[in-house]
């Protein structure tokens, strides 16, 4: 492939000497195929930039060009009609999947259960006869006389394990639960 020099591309950008249509087509086709010459042409454009006339007021030129363009018919997409029902429905389901919505629902359920006393009932059933069931930590005396701290959550975990072990034993004996 034949490559052209920076000087030749600068001459092409300045349009000196005037080219025949065949020469111009040959150079443009070469620009489409050769990245090296395209870079040289861009450098030639930068060198030839000083030879181009400066625009006094670009807005005047823009207005003149816009006046010469034929008027365009409005496109159907330019219509500002409401969105179809499906798109609105998609937006509604979007916020239902948002984590903030889930946290808000969980917080509301927690407040309702706390105010109704459901959590207190659960704690009281796990520790029957204990008047300190609502405290976070309590002292439990063992046979050795040592004091050990047991949290409410640890007690719940212990009771859950006992319940799961009972379910597993029934399942092994052939029961469904």
Structural write-up:
With 177 residues, the protein is mainly alpha-helical. Helix content is 60%, strand content 6%. Among the domains are: 1-52, no CATH class; 132-177. The two termini are 83 Å apart.
Record the SSE blueprint.
Elements: H1 6-14, H2 21-33, H3 35-48, H4 58-68, H5 85-96, H6 99-116, H7 118-126, E1 137-141, E2 147-151, H8 152-172
Antiparallel strand pairs: 1-2
Residue fraction in strands: 5-15%
Radius of gyration: 41 Å
User: Which spans of ≥5 residues are poorly predicted at pLDDT below 50?
Assistant: 130-146
Work out the number of β strands. 2
Which terms summarize this structure?
single chain, 177 residues, mainly alpha, 2 strands
Summarize the structure.
This protein has 177 residues and is mainly alpha-helical. Helices cover 60% and strands 6% of the residues.
């Amino acid at each position: 492939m034949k490559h052209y020099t920076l000087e030749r591309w600068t001459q092409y950008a300045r349009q000196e000497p005037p080219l025949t249509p065949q020469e111009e087509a040959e150079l443009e086709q070469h620009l489409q195929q050769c990245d090296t010459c395209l870079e040289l042409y861009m450098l030639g454009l930068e060198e030839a930039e000083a030879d181009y006339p400066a625009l006094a007021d670009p807005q005047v030129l823009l207005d003149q060009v816009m006046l010469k363009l034929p008027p365009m018919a409005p496109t159907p997409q330019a219509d500002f009609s409401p969105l179809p029902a499906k798109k609105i429905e998609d937006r509604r389901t979007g916020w239902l999947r948002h984590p903030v919505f889930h946290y808000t629902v969980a917080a509301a359920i927690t407040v309702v259960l706390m105010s109704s006393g459901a959590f207190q009932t659960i704690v009281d059933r796990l520790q029957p006869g204990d008047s300190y069931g609502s405290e976070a930590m309590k002292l439990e005396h063992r046979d050795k006389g040592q004091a050990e701290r047991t949290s409410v959550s640890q007690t719940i975990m212990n009771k859950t394990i006992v319940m799961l072990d009972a379910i597993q034993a029934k399942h092994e004996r052939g029961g469904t639960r």
